[in-house]
Amino acid sequence: MDEALETLKRLGCDVDGTLDRLVGDEDLYLSLLGSFFGGGPLEIVSADLASNDLPAASASSHSLKGVTLNLGLGPLADSAVRLNDLLKQGHLEEAKLLLADMEGSFASFYQEIKPYLETKS
Amino acid sequence: MKRIVLIADDSTIDRAILKSILQNDYAVQEAAGGEEALSLFERFKADLAAIILDIHMPDIDGFEVIKKITVDPKWRQLPIIVASAEGDVKQQEEALRLGAVGFVSKPYNRPILLHTLANAISLHEMAALANSIKRDDLTGLYNREGFIEAATPLIEMAPPFN
After folding, report:
1. How many helices (H) and strands (E) does chain B have?
2. What is the pLDDT of residues A75-115, one digit of tens each?
3. How far apart are CA A48 and CA A95, in angstroms?
4. Does the bond joining B107 to the residue before it have cis omega, within 30 degrees of 0?
5. A69 contact residues in B (CB cutoff 8 A)
6. Alpha carbons B45 and B38: distance in angstroms, whole number
7. Is B61 on the interface with A (CB under 8 A)?
8. Residues A21, B21: C-beta atoms closer than 8 Å
9. CB of A65 within 8 A of CB of A80?
10. Residues with Cβ < 8 Å from B20, sequence gap 6 or more?
11. SS3 for B85?
12. pTM to 2 decimal places
């Protein structure tokens, strides 16, 4: 457990703030992270962007922003905030470029924490 | 017995986080969308202490939920707190204009959320108590004190009688 939390901190996560929201429940934290990454976090936004549906992409990126912030996902949350800002301003093409970057960073992040999430399940 | 708080958010993860913050102090009813929130509101409204509502929900959004609840004057004073990601200033304004009493941002700050909710519930309960003191239990009409308090400003506004 400690190793998982240390890895999250190393990756820039707000572990203390998130654990405070979860009243110190470390198991719940890892379980929610498992649900988040297992659910294909970028798939809905990606599909909305691929179909050039700006209102839908704006809404789905807003949900992504809320969840990444609540899970304290540091740099991933920062990029989700930027993505949502771009879409709110109607910058569809810039959002697509950012999403392509995000897919890489989300995948790298997941690879780092995946062993701990699998240990839990 | 714990007070009942209805939470509505289409994100399972955000709901789980909100529930973990609240569940030591409140009995939490969860809705995964606006439609379910309205359904649970109908079921529990007599015992509800407050509602925490996400604005962005795919079926019926939070604004619509607020409108549908507050259209009935009986529930207009029920504390509704709106939750959304940080920076949504326009949405905060709109929610407050529609009758929400407060706003909590994601990521949730546990003490701020709990204080905001407790204060809103406390104010609502005090107002309800004050209102009940001014009315007759049986008829629901103003009692003598309540009538004088309600009528005095109206009488003072009236033009002098010549």
Report:
1. 6, 5
2. 999 999 999 999 999 999 999 999 999 999 999 999 999 99
3. 11
4. yes
5. 85-86, 106-107
6. 10
7. no
8. yes
9. yes
10. A21, A22, A23, A25, A28
11. strand
12. 0.86
CA nearest neighbour of B81 among B45, B49, B111:
B49
Q: DSSP string spanning B39-58?
A: HHHHHHTTTEEEEEEES--S
C-beta of residue B6 within 8 angstroms of C-beta of residue B40 = yes
Which of B84, B87, B107 has its CB closest to that of A21? B107
Q: Estimate to the nearest angstrom the gap between the alpha carbon of A60 and the chain centroid.
A: 12
Which H or E run contains B69?
helix B62-70
Name chain A contacts of B16, Cβ cutoff 8 Å.
Answer: 28, 32
Q: Within its chain, how far is the Cα of B80 from the centroid? A: 3
Tens of pLDDT, residues A33-80: 999 999 888 999 999 999 999 999 999 999 999 999 999 999 999 999
Of B16, B85, B109, the CB nearest to A62: B85
How far B34 CA lies from chain A's nearest CA (Å)? 15
**In Å, how far is B35's CA from the nearest CA of chain A?**
18
Distance from C-alpha of A94 to C-alpha of B50, rounded to nearest angstrom? 41
